[in-house]
Specification:
M1 Pyruvate Kinase, Domain 3; 8-stranded mixed sheet; 3-stranded antiparallel sheet
Length: 179
């Protein structure tokens, strides 16, 4: 089965969760139309405080629906958009993609820039959820599972049910790091 878009979400305000929408429009070089994180430079408050001129490598946030199912098994109820993602996918190992992979949604194209670095706001949404999305493995390495981030290369409409095209970059696999 080809990977698909399960849900899309956006919010014009800096809220942790984003309401589900029937569709979102991606704008090349900017992100999700009308979303608080839209822009060429960083929009996340903590990053703006450090250097507001940094490029926005976090224009689009994607999470795999399978993560929501895994946290449900641990007793958490999380619906698409509630962890702040713009696009919820199904059938695609987002965390295993190589940096620079391009994801296609109809005409829209999103280049994967790295992993979301989950923060304490996740526990504000649901106490204990942060430990489900970031933890240390048996060898002490930090494991981030709260989705991936990307930048919009080509704009277009994204809506639930769309197939996701996956275009790996040439060359060796480059594991995702936090952005």
């Amino acid at each position: 089965m080809a990977p698909v878009v399960e849900s899309v979400s956006s919010s014009g305000e800096h809220t942790f969760s984003k309401p589900a929408r029937s569709r979102i429009r991606l704008l090349a070089g900017l992100g999700v139309e009308g979303d608080a994180h839209q822009g060429r430079t960083v929009k996340h408050r903590s990053r703006v405080a450090v250097d507001p001129s940094q490029p926005n490598l976090r224009q689009v946030h994607l999470i795999h629906a399978e993560l929501l199912e895994e946290v449900a098994l641990a007793g958490f109820s999380v619906r698409p958009g509630q962890m702040g993602e713009n696009i919820t996918t199904r059938g695609l190992d987002l965390l295993g993609l190589s940096r620079g992979t391009v994801l296609g949604f109809g005409q829209a194209r999103v280049e994967v820039t790295g992993l979301r670095n989950p923060c304490a706001q996740i526990d504000g949404f649901s106490p204990g959820l942060l430990k489900q999305t970031v933890y240390r493995d048996g060898e002490g390495a930090l494991v981030r599972r709260a989705g991936i981030m990307g930048v919009v290369l080509e704009g277009g409409v994204v809506e639930p049910g769309m197939t996701v095209g996956v275009y790996e970059p040439e060359g060796p696999h480059v594991p995702l790091e936090k952005v």
